[in-house]
Amino acid sequence: MRGMLARELRLAWRQSADTAAALLFFVIAATLFPFALGPDPHVLSVIAPGIIWVCALLAALLPLERLFGADFEDGTLDLLLLSGLTAGGVAAVKTTAHWLTTGLPLLIIAAPLSVMLRMPAEQVPLLLLTLLPGTLLLSLLGTMAASITLGARRSAVLMPLITLPLMIPTLIFGCAAATAPHPQAALLMLAAMLVMALPLAPLAAGAALRAAAE
Asked: Are 135 and 60 contacting, i.e. CB atoms less than 8 angstroms apart?
């Protein structure tokens, strides 16, 4: 698994334009809101967590189309499934690589963006705390959706239609934890969803990969 993860990270480095596009989209989309809503610090500070969460969710979708697509087209996916790793293990490595190359940078960039949106400095750590399990969930669900739509016609259209409804609970509880006076309940819900998704999402993705490879 380590060798496959190292391979995925090397490929991500060589194809860094995809990651850079997702991060640039995140920054640009979040920057547009002050132009649309005006520079009122009170308004921006109230909606800043929602802006960050929505933009992070949409940015995480961008690299998903190529997550399995290139390996499926050139036959590498068949070799990975025959390499001794289980299909769920292949999906887990892809999820890890997606989070390391997309979710983690989004988490890091979220801090300066939240300050730009006039979010109080004392609330920024809580926002980042919600984004940590949130971005992991986005990677898990996104990988599952990418595997389900692998090989389908117009998969680029199907993937958001499948992924976005699955991500809505993550968005709801993530924003609630970042804005509620008592965020413990929402944080626990995020943690519970992550605990459920960690074993189930790779298994579902692995089953979809086996079906696509047959």
From this structure: yes
Q: Report pLDDT for 75.
A: 77
209, 90 in Cβ contact below 8 A?
A: yes
Residue 202 sits in which domain range?
2-213
Position 5 confidence tier, pLDDT thresholds 50, 70, 90: confident
State the total domains in the chain. 1
What was the pLDDT predicted at 10?
Answer: 84
The span from the CA of 65 to the CA of 109, in Å, is 23
Asked whether residue 116 carries a pLDDT value surpassing 80, the answer given is: yes
Average pLDDT over residues 122-130: 91
Q: How far is CA 187 from CA 18, 62, 79, 109, 115, in A?
A: 31, 26, 40, 21, 22
Q: Is the pLDDT of residue 96 over 80?
A: yes
